[in-house]
């Protein structure tokens, strides 16, 4: 099993207890969140689908992220993360969707958006959308991606417990 097994099991249990399915919209993690969940037998009762939208074109085509949002704020932004999560929810049977978009490195960072910056978006039906960012500084690419998976699973779990 994966290094995220305990968190993933908790998310699956919380979704099952809430009677909702989950969708993911992933950029910098390339499907790692969905993989952590689907590594667990029986996850098909809760996981509806995962969108891997690495390019801006994929974000627009698969999730409905607007070109205006991408032009104004960039792929790594609160606005894009929220549009990704909303798009995943709208294009699935899920009741909760989590999205991640970030700069895993080692290149691609800037003063405003350093390597390790990840924006998270979460939409739970019937609730206001949530967004948060983390800067996973001092980590290599694998470390940023692993920390992103953990934080995304924690964000879903927290939202479901609060709901």
From TrEMBL:
Q: What species was this sequence derived from?
A: Nitratireductor aquibiodomus RA22
List, for all copies, the residue spans of the domain called CinA C-terminal. 8-159
- Name this protein carries in UniProt: CinA domain-containing protein
Q: Which Pfam families match?
A: CinA (PF02464)
Which SUPFAM superfamilies does the record associate with it? Answer: CinA-like
Q: Which InterPro entries match?
A: CinA-like_C, CinA_C
């Amino acid at each position: 099993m994966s290094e995220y097994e305990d968190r993933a099991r908790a998310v699956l249990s919380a979704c099952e207890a809430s009677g909702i399915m989950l969708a993911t919209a992933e950029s910098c993690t390339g499907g790692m969140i969905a993989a952590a969940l689907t590594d667990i037998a029986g996850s098909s009762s809760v996981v509806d689908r995962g969108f891997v939208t690495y390019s801006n074109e994929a974000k627009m085509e698969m999730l409905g992220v607007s070109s205006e949002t991408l032009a104004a704020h960039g792929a790594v932004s609160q606005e894009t993360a929220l549009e990704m999560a909303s798009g995943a929810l709208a294009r699935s049977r899920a009741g909760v969707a989590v999205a991640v978009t970030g700069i895993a490195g080692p290149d691609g960072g800037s003063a405003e958006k350093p390597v390790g910056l990840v924006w998270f978006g979460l939409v739970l039906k019937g609730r206001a959308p949530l967004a948060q960012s983390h800067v996973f500084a001092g980590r290599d690419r694998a470390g940023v991606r692993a920390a992103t998976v953990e934080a995304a699973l924690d964000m879903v779990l927290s939202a479901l417990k609060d709901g």
